[in-house]
Fold this protein.
Amino acid sequence: MSDRYLNLVNSGMGKTVASRLGLPRPEVLRRYHVGDPLLPGPLLLGGSGASVLAGLAGVLKAAGVDVRDADAAEARWAGLVYDATDVNEIRDLAPLRDFFAGALRRLGPSGRVIVLGRSPAGSDPVVDATRQALDGIVRSLGKELRAGATANLVLVEGDASPESAVRFLLSGRSAYVDGQVIRVGGGSEVEVKERKDRVDDAVHATKAAIEEGVVAGGGVALLYASKAINGLNTENGDQKVGVEIVRNALKAPVRQIAENAGAEGAIVVGKLLEKGDVTWGFDAQTNEYKDMFKAGIIDPTKVVRTALQDAASVAGLMLTSEAMVAEIPEKKPVPAMPSGNGMDF
């Protein structure tokens, strides 16, 4: 939705016109602009994790945020941050409820609600259930908040600092981030790197989707694209073989995904082609057939298109050059069996 329409229906006369015509009137969200403060009003900070709260308060104050640790009836809060990293039992959630009970009513437009917590450890069912409840609480808050306000959960792993995540969620950059779970830190260097790579992949995929849109994921876009070459007139047998190679290559991603999930790839491909719905696909995680767009399984059009073009380019290069350069794996000698130290078995 363009900013011009947004500004129009939220102007004095525009509100009246939009109301009479039944037009949608979305809230004007607080967006990031160079030079804007991190938070345009006071922030209420609460919770039981003294060390985390102290570190956060210092960082946020240094960033120019008006941080307060006590609710006030006259305050109009721009942000609410609650530290629940020490929550281990259901009764520990009572202070969280009391914290938000009054303050939420005085949360300003485009306000920010952030809850800090821990991931379930898997060692104690009570602790895990309590920590898991935070996710449900935050998601419920995200659905109930109005006027452009958002609610998000930050899960802090180990001794990691949540400062950067909190700063991002408080800023105007997070205008569209709502009801999400953000994990900070990791159990090992490999895990941290993997999460960083996932974030990088998500950022690049989002940029590609903005440029050219999205298609159904799970390889089904390529599968249904194979129908486009049905009935293609070929001049000779070589071209006919080439068409069949392309057709099989377009079916390969769905087939391989299904086989990796333990399903029969050829059967999955056959059922999808028989269905004929270009949004219908195979969810490898649940082994179910479903509408890929409704399930959120999508791929950026640019990524799918580029992969297909690059594959065709490499195949064409092989045909014209009739040669490829590859690295021959080094053959390592098989280690000898250890000695039995004179013992016979």
